[in-house]
Amino acid sequence: MRMPFRPALLCPLLALAACAPSLIPGTQIKDAPENRAALQVLSDYKRAAEALDADAVLDLVAPDYFDSGATSRSKRSVDYAALQQQIPAEFRRLKALRLDITVKDARVEGDRAQIDYFLVLHYSMALPSGEKWMSESDDARLSLAKENGKWKVIAGL
After folding, report:
1. Residue 41 parent element (H or E)
2. Closest CA to 65 of 49, 78, 48
3. β-bridge mates for residue 122, sequence order
4. What 3-state DSSP class applies to 77?
5. Confidence of residue 151 (pLDDT cuts 50, 70, 90)
6. Is 12's pLDDT higher than 60?
7. If pLDDT is split at 50, 70 and 90, which confidence band does 59 have?
8. Is 29 exposed, middle or buried (0-12, 13-18, 19+ CB in 10 A)?
9. Is the pTM of this model over 0.85?
10. Sheet containing 150-155: which strands, arranged edge to edge?
11. How many Å apart are CA 97 and CA 66, to the nearest integer?
12. SS3 category, 7
């Protein structure tokens, strides 16, 4: 037996769906200008790192950058001066770099933001025995602060 169509049941479901917040595609993050602006920094970092462009990466970083190592891959304290030496040195050792990033969460509170993501690094190094591809993966957190109206990385590289 065929069930009769009941438009009265469909209306409340459509109303609930219309009230749901829109999400940034591919994430569970509310689609809001402040969230998109913070996530753009992560996208810019990915693009600069894959181009092995140390200057472009450093342009995203605040002068008061400090990472205690607790939320980064390095596991040691790094400030902006150390980062200025470290990033170009690391990029010189690489022949190629690819980052696969899956954003898990983004929180913006005033002039501070945190982006939690899962990172898979694929990189090629020139070794005496020849070129070798390697990969690493880990959860990561990028911390941002707004400076002069622009988001800058303050920890997490």
Report:
1. helix 33-50
2. 78
3. 98, 135
4. coil
5. very high
6. no
7. very high
8. buried
9. no
10. 94-109, 112-127, 130-147, 150-155
11. 24
12. helix
The full length of the chain comes to 157
pLDDT at residue 7, rounded to an integer:
55
Give the tens place of pLDDT for each residue, 65-91: 999 875 445 567 899 999 999 999 999
Buried/exposed code over 119-152 (b: 16+ C-beta within 10 A; e: otherwise): bebebeeeeeeeeeeeeeeeebbbbbbbeeeebb
CB atoms within 10 A of CB 24: 15
Confidence band (pLDDT; 50, 70, 90) for 10?
low
Spatial separation of the C-alpha atoms in residues 111 and 7, rounded to whole Å: 46
User: What is the residue extent of each domain of the chain?
Assistant: 29-155
Q: Which CATH architecture best describes the domain 29-155?
A: Roll (3.10)
Q: Which residues contact 49 (CB under 8 A, 6 or more apart)?
A: 57, 97, 99
Residue 49 · residue 118 · CB < 8 Å:
no
- Rounded Cα gap, residues 68 and 100, in angstroms: 24
Going 73 to 76 to 77 to 78, the CA torsion angle's sign is negative
